[in-house]
Amino acid sequence: MKTIEGKLGWAILFALALAFPFLASNDYLLTVMSLAYIYAIATIGLNLITGYTGQFNLAHSGFMAVGAYTVGILTVDHQWPFWLAFALSGFVAAAIGIAVGIVSLRLKGHFFSIFTLCVGYIMFLLIEKWESLTHGTVGIIGIPAPENFLGIDFDTPRGQYYMVLFFLVISVWIMHRIVTSLLGRTFMAVRNSEELAEALGINLMRNKVLAFTLSVFYAGVAGGLYAGAVRFIGPGLAGVEHTFDMTMFMLVGGIGTLFGPLLGSISMPWLTQYLQFLQDYRFIVFGPILVALVIFLPNGIVGTYLAWKARAAYRKSAPAAARAQGAQGVAPAKQEKPSHA
């Protein structure tokens, strides 16, 4: 029954996503939602290494920029078709991620986070200063729209929306298969206790590097989609503030869950959009909301709901277990044979 409810819930969400372009009043809303979906893909990847494996990567936005610049450089400077360049975006980010992961994952806890923070800043500086490759602070302008596929025009906001939605659905499905597999259980074992996982025969380094590589692959794919949707990229995309945004999405939705990062990535951009009328003062409202969420919902919206559901199930099953134990306790004891002197 639980599986049926889960599939039904995802089916309803998918149906609402399909219907959104027909409910949106203008193309701006489609653009906002498309960007939210792109950041949702990147956040799902960050959640794999942080929420499921327990390693906080602060260079995640840098790998997203790698995917975006892969598409931008190949399409603008070398006239590659968009789809061919996009196919490489995730793999280029993953290739760099393997090298970074092998070095950085030898560290643990906040040492790893500080190291990746430095890596992310180095990536930002390389993008900003390597003008012959990345165009420097000017950025890459005029990235072509994805070519038509099966008669679908991706040059329109609605076409871009459905393109990003397609990759979001694929990303969520693949991540679901990963986290519910033996590999996902291995990642969670590493998160819960590295010493115990190693005692059980789990290769810590290999599994952490694999989780890191899969995570930055998601970031590279999100960056490639970002380049195709926005058509302009600059060094700011690699800024650590974008990683903090994705971290906020995870914390609000529920870190270490599949639906939580998706919920946070979609809901928080809309909240900021509705607070735009406050201009510079919107953070006075936005900040306390985040603080209240962290205080009263420390496990995020989805994490808190799952914890409440688990407690409710326990309270429901506890009386039945107590009655069963009571019935066993009043059972007649086995009569002992009298002893003879």
Describe this structure in words.
With 341 residues, this protein is mainly α. It has a domain at 25-238. The chain is 75% helix and 1% strand. It has helices at 2-23, 27-52, 60-77, 82-104, 109-129, 131-134, 157-179, 182-192, 194-199, 204-230, 240-253, 259-274, 282-296, 300-329, and strands at residues 140-141, 232-233. A two-stranded antiparallel sheet has the order 1-2. α2 runs antiparallel to α10, α3 (60-77) crosses α10 and α4 (82-104) packs antiparallel against α10 (204-230). The protein is globular, with a radius of gyration of 24 Å. The termini are far apart. The model is unreliable at 1-5 (pLDDT under 50).
In short:
This protein is an all-alpha fold.
Write the layout of secondary structure elements.
Blueprint: H1 2-23, H2 27-52, H3 60-77, H4 82-104, H5 109-129, H6 131-134, E1 140-141, H7 157-179, H8 182-192, H9 194-199, H10 204-230, E2 232-233, H11 240-253, H12 259-274, H13 282-296, H14 300-329
Antiparallel strand pairs: 1-2
Keywords: Cell membrane, Membrane, Transmembrane, Transmembrane helix
Protein name: Branched-chain amino acid ABC transporter permease
Subcellular location: Cell membrane
